[in-house]
Amino acid sequence: MMDDLDASLSLPPKDCQPLYCLPLYSLMSSEKQRRVFQPPPEGSRMCVIATNVAETSLTIGGIKYVVDSGYEKRRLYDPITGVSQFVVTRISKASADQRAGRSGRTAAGHAYRLYSSAVFQTFEEFSCPEILNKPPDQLVLHLKSMNIVKVVNFPFPSAPDSEALEAAEKALDKTWCLEGHNEERKDRSSYHSTRSYTVSISAGTRLRKSHSYGESTRAYAVRNSTHCCSFRARATNTCFIDSW
């Protein structure tokens, strides 16, 4: 047994092609994402290390093997604390099938799952719709920017809780993020600038207002110091200064 283990840890054969490794995730620029569609350097084999974006959004030609870890980083929203964070959790059976389907698109291929069939049976049938893990205030603000008057009546494929949407709309109205407070909002610029932040709406409102008083730098510092745990949990929790 030890001999087999030592053999598995030995260096690859000299005639083995070197790997040309490329990352692939949703926040990458389009230019960098396009590299996975280009042929690898001569004499090398391409290896794409991808997130869920490669499950359904993209089809990469020439992929013969898929290695599925059985995990994903999923965004979860806590309605009690109002905080969203990314957690590593098991995928669903539907996601596992999608990952396996990435191999053999244009040629024969195989999928290797790093979990047993018994573990696979413990997976959920389908993943929770992403819209149900989105903070209601961000969802309302996004739809309002699309001129959707009555968000509660919007025909969602998977409808969020109507009471949560109504409460979020009232909260946004009190913070002058919606139409109806012309004395506080002279135009829609503050509306869209608040929506562009990836922080919570309440924090985005404070950051927007701090800029009008010339205290944006201090507001950023206070916000970061009081929400350090949230910042560590949320990889996309950044503020876009360009939106000022």
Automatic annotation (TrEMBL):
This is ATP-dependent RNA helicase rha-2. One of its GO terms (cellular component) is nucleolus. Keywords: ATP-binding, Helicase, Hydrolase, Nucleotide-binding. Gene3D superfamilies: DEAH helicase family, winged-helix domain (1.10.10.2130), P-loop containing nucleotide triphosphate hydrolases (3.40.50.300). The lineage of its organism: Eukaryota, Metazoa, Ecdysozoa, Nematoda, Chromadorea. GO terms for molecular function: ATP binding; helicase activity; hydrolase activity; RNA binding. SUPFAM superfamilies: P-loop containing nucleoside triphosphate hydrolases. Pfam families: Helicase_C. PROSITE patterns: HELICASE_CTER. It comes from the Eukaryota. The keyword ATP-binding applies. It comes from Parelaphostrongylus tenuis (Meningeal worm). Residues 1-147 form the Helicase C-terminal domain. One of its GO terms (biological process) is maturation of SSU-rRNA from tricistronic rRNA transcript (SSU-rRNA, 5.8S rRNA, LSU-rRNA).
